[in-house]
């Protein structure tokens, strides 16, 4: 009889110990659609919440040096060449020709607002030495490109690797806001007669 009572008490104890445990469940949170930040406190003004729309990313990075703007199928690619005396930075753009109708009649398509040198993995003394560009249409695709050229005043060794980062900002006609960093790695080549 004592054994039966002991087993019953032990069973009741075990059940009461387990009864208080609830299994953990994972409830996924909905993705955020806005960022909410508190405005700075100003004396005499009630502190309120300001809703800021989430930043919409309308492009995909195909590589460190190439992107595609999704809604208009525009591609932008950064390339370049570095010798012991010259640095050339190239950009190449392609977009379906139908996109050009967004620009005012009889004007050059202004796709880029700003394209500037942002960072180098090795400090270089550079002197701007010109540039140029142009565009053409073929098979329903408009392509355009330009080059920024610099004289290199810093001694370099053939075979050195240097990373170049450029910041690209599109014009108001492209639905991408803010500057986009693009990076290429260049290997120093010997100076050639075309370096001028």
What is this structure's SSE topology?
Layout: H1 2-19, E1 34-38, E2 49-53, E3 59-63, E4 66-69, E5 74-82, E6 86-96, E7 112-120, E8 126-138, E9 141-152, E10 161-170, E11 180-187
Antiparallel strand pairs: 1-2, 3-4, 4-5, 5-6, 6-9, 7-10, 8-9, 10-11
Tell me what the structure shows.
The protein is mainly beta and 196 residues long. The chain has one domain: Immunoglobulin-like. The protein has 1 helix and 11 strands; from the N terminus they run αβββββββββββ. The chain has one helix at residues 2-19, and strands at residues 34-38, 49-53, 59-63, 66-69, 74-82, 86-96, 112-120, 126-138, 141-152, 161-170, 180-187. The chain has a 6-stranded antiparallel beta sheet with strand order 3-4-5-6-9-8, with no helix packed on it. A 3-stranded antiparallel beta sheet has the order 7-10-11, with no helix packed on it. A hairpin with a 2-residue loop joins strand 3 and strand 4 (66-69). The longest helix is centred in the N-terminal third of the chain and has 18 residues, at 2-19. It is elongated, with a radius of gyration of 30 Å. The termini are far apart. Mean pLDDT is 77; it is low at 1-55.
* Sheet with the most strands: spatial strand order: 3-4-5-6-9-8
- Termini separation (Å)? 108 Å
- Rg over alpha carbons: 30 Å
Helix-strand sequence: HEEEEEEEEEEE
Q: Beta-sheet strand percentage?
A: over 45%
Question: What is the residue-mean pLDDT, rounded to a whole number?
Answer: 77
Structural class: mainly beta
Number of strands: 11
The number of helical elements comes to 1
Q: Main sheet?
A: 6 strands, antiparallel
Q: Note poorly predicted spans.
A: 1-55
Q: What is the CATH topology classification name?
A: Immunoglobulin-like
